[in-house]
Design brief:
Elements: E1 5-9, H1 12-25, E2 30-35, E3 41-42, H2 47-51, E4 62-64, H3 66-73, E5 76-79, E6 81-87, E7 92-97, E8 103-107, E9 110-113, E10 117-119, H4 136-146, E11 151-155, H5 159-170, E12 174-179, H6 190-202, E13 206-209, E14 213-216, E15 220-223, E16 228-230, E17 233-236, E18 240-242, H7 245-249, E19 273-275, E20 282-283, E21 290-291, H8 296-310, E22 324-328, E23 331-337, H9 340-345, E24 351-355, E25 370-376, E26 383-390, H10 394-407, H11 431-444, E27 449-450, H12 455-460, E28 464-467, H13 471-476, E29 483-484, H14 487-490, E30 502-505, H15 510-521, E31 526-529, H16 532-548
Parallel strand pairs: 1-2, 1-9, 2-5, 9-19, 11-12, 11-17, 12-13, 27-31, 28-29, 28-30, 30-31
Antiparallel strand pairs: 3-4, 6-7, 7-8, 10-18, 14-15, 15-16, 20-21, 22-23, 23-26, 24-25, 25-26
């Protein structure tokens, strides 16, 4: 039997997953891995934490070496080796040693493209001074640059930008984070981003929203609003684009979003060439359309599935939800599926639910608050997306919700999930179950809700806002024009309520739901302000940031 010659272009998550899985399936295959950098297997998601000294030893980031991979998996791993061209007619890959400049050609039967993504570098004057963080070499450069630096400007408020900014703060630097949009972390809806903004500012970060960078000088950065920020170090974390230059030169199809187009088995338009990882387009799990999702777990799975296909096993190109999580000082921020902004822009109907539970039973010490947002289809009750921001427990809730979407569990069906409970870990009614109860109440018409951004229009149309919190809560902060009537007094004071529709609110929505049930059964038209005063307040802060930007 002829030996299958497989060349994998690019290591790290996707490439190395494909290489090691294929070796486990086929001991006879000749597997060559080409890596342009000096490191083929490293923890790229840990790079910011080494910059900040959280991961102290650089060696902890290096998972495997060419020598260890050769010893355990019989892989021919060539670092500092760049694939410069793919000759599809001759089935050879042209390579160049980036250290010596020597060139060669390698024949192949199959190629797996895993070149990753390249950082976005907009044509800002002085952009050449800005550092990026993509590989170990970038990390070394950033560690060296920050060694004697006092000030830094991070351009971009996405996942990497926030992680870098936090870790520079850990170094004792004065850090500014610049984001051209009115909020950080685009996957979050505006009201969910508000606590993230608060956490960044509380940690000492000079957060500049709604103003892009116009010039990077020798020791400062100038913004579009004319302000100038001192910057011994500048980091560009504006985003990434699929690395497709090799694919384009080889005549492979690139999709409308700029990633390499692949089929259900990750094959390109050339059946001998596969593409995985950040360079390849994915299938959106909710729409079925092409999308770009540069995440390590997605790349790892794609590498495994390509190896399965080459090894003769059933394989599929899994649709993606874009489930992601990031640490922001003491906050955990996580998302899955679509957000409200995207659903609204696509004209897709949705129902939004906000809750503010605690991580475990409130009477057990250490319970931490969180904000959860669930988005569901109002007709089918299918879960369309979710977001979580808070302390302990956000991670497991977003994972359950991502699993529910994948498994086809409805929003109301969350109420039926049997989840582990003991006071140190959760509640008898877990936050996931509570989302399901709210979804069920809305689906069955047991209650009706109004979103924070719909309140002004409702009041303008004649609705009265009723605050059913305690007098002390109302005095500490209230929605302008709201009428304070505590929930426990509501039944006895219904006759005092003004005529017309009522919008009821409490702190987070729970008492508001009870108030709506009292009022509607008394013949009044009433809706609950979803997520209560806490969500409304976060929404107002987000609106103010948008106006300021």
């Amino acid at each position: 039997m002829a030996v299958m010659r497989v060349i994998i272009i690019g290591g790290v998550a996707g490439g190395m997953s494909a290489a090691t899985r294929l070796r486990r399936l086929d001991e006879s295959a000749a597997i060559t891995v080409l890596e342009r950098s000096g490191y083929v297997s490293f923890a790229n998601c840990g790079l910011p934490y080494h910059v900040g000294g959280i991961i102290e030893q650089r060696g902890q980031l290096l998972l495997q070496t060419p020598e260890s991979l050769a010893s355990r998996f019989a892989l021919d791993v060539r670092v500092h080796t760049e694939a410069t061209a793919i000759d599809r007619s001759r089935k050879v890959v042209a390579i160049r040693d980036v250290t010596t400049g020597e060139t060669d050609e390698l024949p192949y039967d199959k190629v797996i493209l895993s070149p990753g993504a390249r950082p976005v570098r907009p044509p800002i004057p002085g952009i050449e001074r800005a550092l990026s963080l993509r590989d170990v070499e970038d990390t070394d450069a950033m560690v060296a640059a920050t060694a004697n630096a006092e000030t830094a400007v991070v351009i971009g408020g996405g996942f990497i930008g926030i992680e870098v900014a936090e870790n520079l703060i850990h170094l004792g630097m004065k850090v500014a984070l610049v984001e051209a949009m009115p909020q950080v972390m685009a996957p979050l809806d505006p009201e969910m981003a508000t606590p993230v903004h608060d956490a960044l500012r509380a940690a000492g970060i000079d957060l500049r929203l709604g103003s892009g960078v116009t010039t990077i000088g020798a020791a400062s950065v100038t913004l579009a609003d004319g302000s100038e920020i001192p910057a011994d170090v500048v980091v560009a974390a504006i985003g990434v684009r699929p690395e497709t230059s090799l694919a384009v030169a080889a005549g492979l199809t690139v999709g409308a979003l700029g990633g390499i187009a692949v089929d259900a088995t990750h094959r390109t338009n050339d059946p001998s060439i596969y593409a995985i990882g950040d360079a390849a387009e994915k299938i959106d799990a909710l729409s079925g359309d092409a999308c770009l999702v540069p995440l390590a777990n997605t790349a790892n799975l794609a590498g495994r599935r390509v190896a399965d296909h080459l090894g003769g096993l059933a394989s599929s190109n899994r649709p993606v939800l874009g489930t992601a999580i990031v640490k922001v000082f003491d906050l955990t921020v996580a998302t899955t599926g679509w957000n409200e902004k995207r659903l609204a822009a696509a004209g897709r109907p949705y129902r939004a639910i906000h809750t503010h539970p605690v991580s475990h039973a409130g009477y057990y010490p250490g319970a931490e608050g969180m904000a959860l947002k669930l988005l569901a289809d109002p007709e089918t009750d299918a879960i369309l997306g979710a977001q979580g921001v808070g302390g302990d427990g956000v991670d497991k809730r977003i994972d359950v919700l991502a699993t529910a979407i994948t498994g086809g569990i409805s929003a109301s069906g969350l109420a039926e999930l049997e989840l582990a409970y003991a006071p140190p870990y959760g509640s008898a009614k877990d936050p996931i179950n509570m989302l399901g109860h709210v979804a069920e109440n809305l689906r069955t018409g047991t209650t009706s809700a109004l979103q924070w951004h719909e309140l002004d229009a409702a009041v303008a149309a004649g609705a009265t806002v009723i605050d059913v919190r305690t007098p002390g809560e109302h005095a500490a902060g209230a929605i302008p024009g709201s009428v304070p009537i505590g929930l426990d007094d509501l039944r006895d004071r219904i006759d005092e309520l003004p005529a017309g529709p009522l919008v009821v609110h409490c702190a987070v929505g729970v008492r508001g739901h009870t108030a709506v049930r009292i009022l509607t059964q008394a013949g009044r038209e009433a809706v609950n302000l979803d997520g209560g005063y806490k969500t409304w307040l976060a929404g107002q802060a987000a609106r103010a940031a948008t106006i300021a930007g």
